[in-house]
Amino acid sequence: MQPTSLGDQELALLRFVSSHGPITAGEAAAKYGEPIGLARSTIETVLSRLHKKGYLARSRKAGVFCFEAVLEPQEVMGSLVEQFVEKTLGGSLVPFVTYFVKQNQLSDSEIIELQQLVSKLESKKQEKDR
Predict the structure, then answer these.
(1) Between these two residues, 59 and 75, which has the higher pLDDT value?
(2) Residue 3 — very low, low, confident or very high, per pLDDT cuts 50/70/90?
(3) Upper half-sphere CA count for residue 113 (Cβ side, 13 Å)
(4) What is this structure's pTM?
(5) Residue 19 burial by Cβ neighbours in a 10 Å radius (0-12, 13-18, 19+)
(6) What is the mean pLDDT of residues 76-96?
(7) Over 60: is that where the pLDDT of 2 sits?
(8) Tally of CB atoms within 10 A around 73
(9) How many CA atoms lie within 13 A of 95 on its CB side?
(10) Contact in structure between 14 and 6 (CB atoms under 8 Å)
(11) How far are the Cα atoms of 69, 112, 122, 129 from residue 126, in angstroms, in the given order?
């Protein structure tokens, strides 16, 4: 699926549906919308947009629509990160990583994970170059 941009509200509701779905608009409004002050009509609108963008599947059960995420949460995030890197950073991860390094926002475990990813990339590059 080619990622379509998501607003903050869409992304937050998509995350909620991913972890609680399948879910009706009424359930989403009660469990997600009400605690943060969003009206049911707002939740219905956002669910509809997410469905039209291809992030949610919709099926009718007992006369009401149920929504569930089409992709796993990590797949959605991967698509959005890819879109951000391509569109905002011109395909380069260097500004992204530089930001985290300058802000000292990487934990020890995240640094180790990044080092492991770089090692995997180097291995793949060596295999490809053979």
Answers:
(1) 59
(2) low
(3) 5
(4) 0.68
(5) exposed
(6) 82
(7) no
(8) 13
(9) 9
(10) yes
(11) 37, 21, 6, 5
